[in-house]
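User: What would this chain look like folded?
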Amino acid sequence: MERVLDGKVALVTGGSRGIGRAIALRLAHMGAKVAITYLSHTQAAQETVDAIARVGSEGMCLQGDVASTADVEACFQKVTSTWGGVDILVNNAGIIHDSLLVRMDEEAWDRVLAVDLRGAYLCTRLALKGMLRKRWGRILNIGSVVGIRGNPGQANYAAAKAGLIGLTLSVAKEVASRGITVNYIAPGYITTDIVEGLSADLKERILQRIPVGRFGRAEEVAALAGFLCTEEASYITGQVIAVDGGLVIS
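Assistant: Here's the prediction, encoded as structure tokens.
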């Protein structure tokens, strides 16, 4: 793979597993130094960093809660002191806490909004300071098709991911003239731990709604993410792009 991101520094939140790990590895293959954040999966985070090293790039794992201002500031300070700043930010960290709204407690609502939306705000605000000085940057917000079409039992998650679309569009307009692009990737049903844990019956019902007839792979999301970080994608900003096998049009 051509190392078109040599000299760039990427920060991928929630990069220890799943889509986050796939994106981190894709950017590393393309030549970027990659820092990942994680909350509790220490071993998985180290495995991701080890994989980054095996493809010939530098990696770093940083423990912290993206919903915490202090933790986010500490992560950015570490990356900046080590590598000089963040050129590429991937806001991938997210959680779910599913329940029908009538039964959803305030803690479940607040925590999902804090991690999935506030976390992106905190990270984006800090990343932009360096990007604006350099007049170059790439910000990717990893959302979900749920943020576009909703889903029963996921009102908190859908609200957070829909909010992330609004954040993407607004920030894209604010910084476009400074060489910074901001885009939103909306994965559909991707083969991760969550999807693997679904019952066979539920999987079959979901597959019937996906026009291409299969679940996606994290690497397919990562391929788009990698392209959007290149110079070739400098004219693409403020976009909401689904990687979902046609689910949003079904």
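The mean pLDDT is 97. If you want, I can go into more detail on any region.
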